[in-house]
Structures are given as C-alpha cells and as structure tokens.
Amino acid sequence: MILGAARPKLSRSDFNLARHVLRKFLQ
User: Fold this and answer.
1) Hey, where are the domains in the chain?
2) H/E element holding 23?
3) pLDDT in tens, 1-27
4) Would the pTM of this model clear 0.70, i.e. be above it?
C-alpha cells in the first residue's frame, strides 16, 4: 500500500488504525 511504502516503519497497531480510518473515510 501507499502508506506502507511511505512509512515502512509504522507499527502494526498504527497501520491497522490508519486502515480502519481509510475504510470509514471511503464509506
């Protein structure tokens, strides 16, 4: 994903949180 490429050092919790926010934003 773009976020993964931009910040590969993101922790798992942060990545999941961002993914959840993106899903809510898209909806």
Assistant:
1) 1-27
2) helix 12-26
3) 565 565 666 577 888 888 999 999 888
4) no
